[in-house]
């Protein structure tokens, strides 16, 4: 078996919008720099994702050097959004838990409302005191996350996707496969590991940064959403439900928490520490 290496790195500047590939990324305690620091909220202040609005997959947020973003989407003119001043925060809700964030203003709200056909706004989180705690059942004291679902990073392996696609090819919805890795919206993709080897990992090093493996990642309807067309199918949830279940959840990939900061780069050697 070859030495595992980091094949690709991905950030999602706005939660649930299109992933952006990077050749390197700074690892911060709450995730990759620039990953899911922005989120879309509805009129009730609840964070919304592709679970409810699959067309978010077609929208892109390109980061700017100043920390702002440029929003673009089919049928909409690009919009530059500066980082809002942190003087006034609002309480928003993510997975039934409140968190403080800073609203981006009416221009961003109008752009999103027109694209998603409803009443929506954009919020930003960057102050350390506004981070969310990682699930205490799987966290060490002081571990935090921004707008990611529950953990700072998600890692997947290329070999496990190949194995999953082989299973899909044998099923009733073989025509939907093979699926690309972007269905799973990972931050890190590793190649050179055995299929499903990540199930046994508890600590790993990617280049100069070490990570704790918190728990397997439970998967939802977002994985059935084509990230290029926003159309939905049955896979991979149907096949995962038959072959990859843990604690009542269908799983693919592992949630990670950084043990310290540093920079990771495509091609970095991956060492399984425990």
From TrEMBL:
Write down the InterPro entries for this protein, in alphabetical order. MoCF_Sase_C (IPR005302), MOCOS_middle (IPR005303), Pyrv_Knase-like_insert_dom_sf (IPR011037)
Q: Which residues form the MOSC domain?
A: 126-273
Q: Which Pfam families match?
A: MOSC, MOSC_N
What's the superkingdom here?
Bacteria
Put simply, this protein is called MOSC domain-containing protein
């Amino acid at each position: 078996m070859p030495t595992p290496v980091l094949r690709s790195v991905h950030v999602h500047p706005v939660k649930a919008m299109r992933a952006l590939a990077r050749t390197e990324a700074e690892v911060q305690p709450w995730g990759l720099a620039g990953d899911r620091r922005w989120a879309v909220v509805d009129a009730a202040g609840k964070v919304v994702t592709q679970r409810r609005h699959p067309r978010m997959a077609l929208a892109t947020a390109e980061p700017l050097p100043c920390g702002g973003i440029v929003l673009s989407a089919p049928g909409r003119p690009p919009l530059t959004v500066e980082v809002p001043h942190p003087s006034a925060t609002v309480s928003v809700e993510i997975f039934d838990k409140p968190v403080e964030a800073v609203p981006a203003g009416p221009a961003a709200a109008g752009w999103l409302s027109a694209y998603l056909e409803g009443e929506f706004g954009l919020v930003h989180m960057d102050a350390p005191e506004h981070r969310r705690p990682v699930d205490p059942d799987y966290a060490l004291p002081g571990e935090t996350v921004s707008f990611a679902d529950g953990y700072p990073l998600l890692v997947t392996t290329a070999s496990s996707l190949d194995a999953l696609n082989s299973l899909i090819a044998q099923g009733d919805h073989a025509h939907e496969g093979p699926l690309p890795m972007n269905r799973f919206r990972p931050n890190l993709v590793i190649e050179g590991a055995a299929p499903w080897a990540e199930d046994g990992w508890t600590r790993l090093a990617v280049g100069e940064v070490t990570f704790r493996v918190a728990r397997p990642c439970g998967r939802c309807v977002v994985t059935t959403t084509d990230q290029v067309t926003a159309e939905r199918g049955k896979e991979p949830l149907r096949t995962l439900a038959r072959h990859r279940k843990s604690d009542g959840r269908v799983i693919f990939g592992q949630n990670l928490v950084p043990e310290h900061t540093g920079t990771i780069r495509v091609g970095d050697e991956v060492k399984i520490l425990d």
